[in-house]
Amino acid sequence: MASPTQITPDPEPASPDAALLEALRAGEPGAFEQLVRTHGGRLLAVARRLLGNEEDARDAVQEAFLNAFRGIDRFEGGSLLSTWLHRITVNVALMKLRTRKRKPEESLDHLLPAFKDDGHFAERFESRSEPVDQQVAREEEQAVVRAAIDELPDHYRTILLLRDIEGIATNEVAEQLGITPNAVKLRLHRARQALRTLVAPRLGRPER
Amino acid sequence: MTKLNCQACADFIADYLNGDLDAEVRASFETHLDRCRNCRAYIEQYAVVVKAGQRACERENEAAAGAFPEELVRAILDARKPD
Questions:
Q1: Do A132 and B60 touch (CB under 8 A)?
Q2: DSSP helix/strand/coil, A121
Q3: What three-state secondary structure class fits B69?
Q4: Which of A46, B13, B26, B28 is 20 to 30 A off residue A31, Cα-Cα?
């Protein structure tokens, strides 16, 4: 049996960002602009994914940078600046999501696999002849999955983005969303199953 | 060793792929996988979807890295200035 396929994002390597950090703390002209120009684009991508619209995403990134500027003296350098900024942006985006009018939780049951009375899957699934890494590398495959993520009900999409894409730990997601770690795990699993169901026919995998 | 069916295995996929199953459950899970082609195909599709989503978003981040709107740079830097 092959070893399990690792599906959590790789942690970033440690790096001190020492020169920029020193310049930021010294209030040097240009240091804050460098920080914004270096990291702003990626943070905007994160905020767009979580918030789903450009205006809210831009507001979130602006607020995140202002929080970072104010808190730069409290940044201890235990992580990369990019990691610290990413976390601040995620927190601001989640705060914005919380202030939106709450929608009733949408069911995902129609996208979960069905089983026969004896516990076997009701459908037949087909393996591809090519290895997983080759399938994943195909841009068409990526584009189809990316589009399907945005079709997931909000409660599931947010958890999938936080865990699988942004790499936030289960316990932290649970704390941020006010649910138990087990609920995070269950929703993540269901969101992935739903995603598989959504993309299968679009990638030429009709089920029998 | 507990015998698992497809439905029970489906519940354990995330923990299996993360390496979080305890030894006994993992052995039962892998015994089922060895003889169930349908479960192997399902898990392959599940893993591909997760990894393809991650790769797509990495590419999205890379594309966005060099395309931060100039007006937003100015807005952020202006908002930081004291009144």
A1: no
A2: strand
A3: coil
A4: A46
